[in-house]
Amino acid sequence: MKEILRILERDARTTPQQIATRTGKSLSQVKRAIKKAEGDRTILKYKTVINWDRVGEEQVWALVEVKVVPQRDVGFDAIAERIYRFPEARSVYLVSGTYDLAVLVVGSTMQEVAGFVSQKLAPLESVQGTVTHFLLKRYKEDGEILGVEERPKRVPLMP
Amino acid sequence: MNPEGSPISRRVREVSPSGIRRFFDLLASMEGVISLGVGEPDFVTPWRIREAGIYSLERGYTSYTSNYGLLELREELASYLAGRYGISYDPHRELLITVGVSEGIDLALRAVLDPGDEVIIHDPSYVSYVPCTVLAGGVFVPVPTNIENDFRVRAQDIEKRITPKTKAILLGYPNNPTGAVMDREELVKIAQVAQRHNLLVISDEVYDRLVYGVEHTCFASLPGMKERTILLSGFSKAYAMTGWRIGYAAAREEIIEAMMKIHQYTMMCAPTMGQMAALEALRAGDADVEQMVAEYDQRRRIMVKGLNDIGLTCFEPRGAFYTFPSIKGTGLSSEEFAERLLLEDKVAVVPGSTFGQCGEGYIRCCYATSLVEIEEALERMARFVKRHQAR
Ligand SMILES: Cc1ncc(COP(=O)(O)O)c(C=O)c1O
């Protein structure tokens, strides 16, 4: 199962037949495993990693540190939920260290992101403070290096 | 001048030139070729290992090391071999860091052969065994292996070829070019043969980490074999470090001492930066090896299935990164096949005959290449085979 998931994580377009050959499993085994993983939300969805810079699409990303007061009984979960329901929050993590929630916010302009932080995030009751870091340059995204890497050539014939 | 009037020694002239030299010339003038003819990983050395090499330069590790190699590396290696195969080697006297397994093969043969001594070597085998034997003044005695036995060498076939002049058996498994691996029972029988006839065993295990669904047996770990075995291995294949040129030899003191004698006068020591990087590989490279092995395994399955579907039948290779399909259905010799495939459909493979007479009728296809390239190569080969099916 894990092997199938790893293959799909690297390339969601790998067909069940290809996966079957690569893993030595039967086609129906692979199909069944994928169906099951899709059914129980092990596979959340299939997406494409896009380098938006290449098409000149302006995107502003910010990593927002959020310090919050945990609430009785629900801890950080309730406030996390308040935050992750906003579509502007691309990712939301509870982290250890000097702040509590790390929120990745994506917008089309700096004003938009700043507005979201100041008008939606910061005023939340249990939020004590926020620190916003705007992303200046992306080097590596989700395991993929964004620049073009030079591949040294191997000797094509070597016994 | 010798009687033939040649500036070149007889011994060197005795070594036949590599059969694939002319392919290099062909390749040089072509574009768009997909190569399944490589003999090394397509991965770049894992970053943590490269970084350790760079860091060693920054710290100024730029001088010679001990002739034996960095003691730290030998110590790490000793504990690695003890942990992995349960054999203990004294890092001070029984290990030698070499310039790749290539140098190890040369040193081992030169250290033990007297003129006329015979070395039994399976056929097909890695290209350097026979020339190095000849250059060391030895005589090479081939033992055929074949597809019926998945290209594993049999103890009984070795024993038949033993003469009073036999000095050593050379084993290269997991095998280049076939991808064959030996099973433990047969190795135990070979060990008994070595014992009975008082022979040395030179065991090239450079592909020991690259096995799929089977366990590698280290020959020296068999009962009584540490004393008789010269274990040769290295970092090139498992850690994708071919260009760093680091290998090692492990054997009893007397033999390592003799190999070191040659090594100190001809090589001084293995590259220092490479040794520093190899140290990091041993200490922290396991996860990277596992990841690469998992990747090779998937490509292996695709290659084997693809070749069999085309009609180039091949057994399931369990080691290294080679498949060795039969091309007999085309009626072409393996050299003709390789040459025409290159010229007509632009796929480079290595003719099986390069590795010995028993390789005739086969080609070596390496799957240490991206999946995209493997799939494209298989398509081209399918077209080729269709045109050349023997009528
Ligand atoms: C069986 C075998 N032994 C030894 C070598 C040489 O390895 P190294 O890079 O350690 O010299 C190779 C390389 O192709 C090989 O296939």
General description of the model:
- The complex is a heterodimer of chains A (159) and B (391).
- Helix content of chain A is 31%, strand content 21%.
- With 159 residues, chain A is of the alpha+beta class.
- Chain A has 2 domains: 2-39; 57-137, 2-Layer Sandwich (Alpha-Beta Plaits), CATH 3.30.70.920.
- In chain A, strands 2-3-1-4 form a 4-stranded antiparallel β-sheet.
- In chain A, helix 2 (16-23) crosses helix 3.
- Chain A is extended and about 65 Å long.
- The two termini of chain A are 37 Å apart.
- The model of chain A has no long low-confidence stretch (mean pLDDT 92).
- Chain B has 13 helices and 12 strands.
- Chain B has 2 domains: 10-45 and 287-388, Aspartate Aminotransferase, domain 1 (Alpha-Beta Complex); 47-284, Type I PLP-dependent aspartate aminotransferase-like (Major domain) (Aspartate Aminotransferase, domain 2).
- With 391 residues, chain B is α/β, with parallel strands linked by helices.
- Chain B has helices at 10-14, 21-28, 47-58, 71-85, 100-112, 129-135, 155-160, 184-196, 253-266, 272-284, 286-310, 334-345, 371-388, and strands at residues 34-35, 95-98, 118-123, 139-144, 166-171, 200-204, 229-234, 247-250, 322-323, 347-348, 350-351, 363-366.
- In chain B, helix 6 (129-135) links the parallel strand 3 (118-123) and strand 4 (139-144).
- The chains are: A alpha+beta (159), B alpha/beta (391).
- Chains A and B meet through helix 2 of A and helix 2 and helix 11 of B.
- Bound molecules: pyridoxal-5'-phosphate.
- Residues 39, 100-102, 126, 172, 176, 204, 206, 234, 236, 242, 247 of chain B line the site of pyridoxal-5'-phosphate.
- Pyridoxal-5'-phosphate (PLP) binds at residues 39, 100-102, 126, 172, 176, 204, 206, 234, 236, 242, 247 of chain B.
* Overall average residue pLDDT of chain B: 96
- Give the cofactors and ligands: pyridoxal-5'-phosphate
Order of helices and strands of chain B: HHEHHEHEHEHEHEEEHHHEHEEEH
Q: What shape does the CA trace of chain B take?
A: globular
Tally of domains of chain B: 2
What distance separates the N and C termini of chain B?
A: 54 Å
State the fourth-level CATH superfamily of the largest domain in chain A.
Lrp/AsnC effector binding domain/regulation of amino acid metabolism (RAM) domain
CATH top level class name of the largest domain in chain B = Alpha Beta
Biggest interface in this structure? A-B, 14 and 27 residues
How much β-strand is present in the residues of chain A?
15-25%
Number of strands of chain A: 6
Count the domains of chain A: 2
Q: What's the gyration radius of chain B in Å?
A: 21 Å
The largest β sheet of chain B comes out as: 7 strands, mixed
How many helices of chain B? Answer: 13
Subunit organisation of the chains: heterodimer
Task: Report the top-level CATH class of the largest domain in chain A.
Answer: Alpha Beta
Helix content of chain A: 25-40%
Just name the CATH architecture of the largest domain in chain B.
Answer: 3-Layer(aba) Sandwich
Outline the low-pLDDT stretches of chain A: none
